[in-house]
Amino acid sequence: MKRLIKVTIHDFSKIEQHLNDAKEIELYHSANGKLYEAVIEHDDYAVIDLNDEEYIELAPNEYELMIPEWKVVGKQGDMIIETMSDPADDRALLYRGIDGVGNVVAEPQSINKQLIMQLYKGWFAKEKAKVE
């Protein structure tokens, strides 16, 4: 399944160490900062087909998953909670609340994706069995 991602490579040194072809390295440089449809592999690496002959593979810290439009993620009472990627910060998501007809009742707030993941893991973590 393809997902929308934004290439966010901050350090090209690892890529340049593993590739010794200037043309391949340039593919990574030219893709940086752009949005692409990518296949996310089981190991969280993203593969982007640039054309029929060229592709790039990105480590999990070299891209951000993007949600381009408001998406319903839940409900709290009568309020519907929606999220989308924060256009001002690739590493954050916007959350807002709307009523049943689409009026905004809770203004959008930007929350860091890492914080969301930490809260998720804390709230839904399975307790480890105690070893005696």
Give your account of this protein's structure.
By secondary structure, the protein is of the alpha+beta class. It contains three helices and nine strands, in the order E-H-H-E-E-E-E-E-E-E-E-H. The strands form two sheets. The protein has a five-stranded antiparallel sheet with strand order 4-3-2-1-5, covered by helices on one side. The longest helix is centred in the C-terminal third of the chain and has 12 residues, at 113-124. The model has no long low-confidence stretch (mean pLDDT 92).
The shape, in one word, is globular
Helix percentage: 10-25%
Terminal Cα span: 44 Å
How many helical stretches? 3
Radius of gyration: 19 Å
The H-and-E topology, N to C, reads as EHHEEEEEEEEH
Q: What does the average pLDDT come to?
A: 92
Percent of residues in beta strands? Answer: 35-45%
- The number of strands is 9
Physical arrangement of strands within the biggest beta sheet: 4-3-2-1-5
Structural class from helices and strands?
A: alpha+beta
Spans of 5+ residues with little confidence (pLDDT < 50)?
Answer: none
**Main beta sheet, described?**
5 strands, antiparallel
